[in-house]
Structures are given as C-alpha cells and as structure tokens.
Design a protein that fits this description.
Length: 290
C-alpha cells in the first residue's frame, strides 16, 4: 500500500493521494470535489507532477471535480528504469486512465508536454471532452526549428544524459530559469519538484522528454494536422509571455488554428503560469466553464 512521502508538505498539498495500476505500474493521482459536478482533468508537463496544480485544485474543487494524474516517471508515480516514456506511451496510458475512471464529457487542462499528450485523446475521442484549457504548449513538429532542435541534439549526447540524470537539469536549471518572477519559485516549492526526482534512476522519464522534443515530432504533427476535428470546441488559452522555452511565437500558431479561442496573456509570467498566476487563472476558468 503506497503512502505519501514524509517530505510532502500537507499544507501545500492538502489532498488525498490515490494510486491506480496501469500496465503493471502504480500511477499516482488526486481526485478532489464532488462526483456529480463538472470534471476537470489536469495533465502536466516536465518536470512537473500533480503538485503543480495545487493552487488551482484547492479553489476549483469547491465547484468542480478535479483530477490530476502524475505521469509514469514523475511525481509520486512509479519510475521503472526501462519504462516507455515516449509521448505516445504517455498518451496511451492517459487514455487507459480515463477509461478506468469512467470519465466522459469532462473538461481538460494541460500544459507543456501534457498538451500534445492529452490532445491526442481529444482528437481521437472528440465527443468525450467538453472544453479545453491550455497554456505554454505545442502540438506540431519541432524538428526543423533550431530553437528546439539545437538543445535536443545536446540532450542526445552523453553530456546531455549526465546533465539530466546526474544533475537534475530540468528541475535545478530549467525550472528556475523559466519563471517570469523568480521570487515565485520559493525554496519550499522548488524542493517539492526536486524531491520528486531524487536520483539518477528516477529521472529517466524527464530525460526521455528532452529527447522527445524532436523524436516525437512526426507523432505530434499527425494530430496537429487533424485539429480541425476539434477546432469548434471551446478553448481557453493562457500564455506566460516571458517564457523563453516555449516562446510567444508559438501562441500565434494556436491563434491561427483556433481563431475563436479565448486567449489570456500574462506579460510578467513565464512557462509555469499555474505557479505564477493561479488566482487570475481561477477567475478565468470559472468564467469559461460557466
């Protein structure tokens, strides 16, 4: 029987942890709020986990059922050394999770890698998702864009592997640099991302995502080319305009593909908008889901 680790601050993360076995591994998730109310499924990116949604869930659970999953290799979920951590595999597991929980007619919130991973499900099952909320994410090929392909080449070298596995590069360096307001990433909050990936063996999933920046490009593009299937759905797009990793130019692609989407830009926020602008996001989400 799995339990929450001792380092988890219950004041920051005041939720009951649940685990579900999928493909022989235990995946951690939280399920807060009332079953009969509207459901929001939260899908994180890297190097995140359900902890990143805590401020949104604390407030939204009073009005909605809030479910946030830790992907395999992240957070409190299992981190098998030889697990399949490709975007396609994560997406397939997410679909199994949705089916196991019997979710239908739900709303989606996703960011970073979680965007493409979850939108694949929506494209293939358009009648099962009502409204979609995204921020600082993508769903198209990145392999010809030097902004991504350059760093991805480094990550595919031994140096890149050492940076990720031995020095926890995405948490210690990338996350710290990705905040618009660095003061928002306090030592206490940062520690909850560090301790979720405590050693080299636990960081294989995060390292695989670094390689997937280009390796998953054809997979993403195949679904981006089918986005017309869900283009008429209600979309709410947040964007941290100080994000240098998934820069504002990517927002223009979303606006072009989804011209009727509601777009909320935060000029002083970076990549992790939910960490920097939770109150503002909650207000917009409530209005959007009315």
């Amino acid at each position: 029987m799995k339990t929450q680790p001792a380092w988890l601050d219950k004041k920051l993360f005041p939720f009951e942890s649940k685990w579900i076995e999928i493909e022989g591994n235990q995946l951690h998730y939280i399920d807060e709020g009332k079953d009969e109310e509207e459901t929001i499924l939260f899908v994180h990116g890297t190097p995140e986990w359900s902890f990143g949604w805590r401020d949104l869930v604390k407030e939204l659970r009073n009005h909605y059922r809030c479910i946030a999953l830790d992907m395999l290799g992240f957070g409190l979920s299992d981190k098998p050394k030889h697990g399949d951590y490709t975007c396609k595999a994560h997406s397939d597991r997410l679909e199994l999770f949705i089916h196991r929980l019997g979710l239908t007619n739900f709303n989606l919130m996703a960011n970073d890698f979680g965007g493409g991973i979850s939108l694949r499900y929506v494209v293939d099952n358009p009648t099962k998702v009502k409204k979609i909320m995204l921020f600082n994410t993508w769903m198209w090929s990145l392999k010809t864009d030097k902004h991504y392909s350059g760093p991805a080449k480094v990550m595919n070298t031994m140096l890149g592997k050492i940076m990720y596995l031995n020095f926890n590069f995405p948490v210690n360096v990338v996350m710290a640099a990705a905040f618009g307001d660095k003061k928002k990433l306090t030592k206490e909050i940062h520690a909850h991302y560090k301790k979720a990936l405590p050693n080299a063996a636990s960081r294989v999933g995060a390292y695989t995502f670094a390689k997937e920046l280009t390796n998953a490009s054809d997979w993403w593009q195949s679904y981006w080319d089918r986005m017309n299937v869900i283009a008429d759905k209600p979309f709410l797009i947040f964007w941290g305009m100080k994000d240098s990793f998934i820069p504002p130019k990517e927002l223009e692609k979303w606006k072009s593909k989804l011209p009727s989407a509601n777009v909320v830009m935060f000029e002083d926020a970076g990549h992790f908008v939910q960490e920097e602008k939770p109150k503002e996001m909650i207000r917009e989400i409530r209005e959007f889901l009315k």
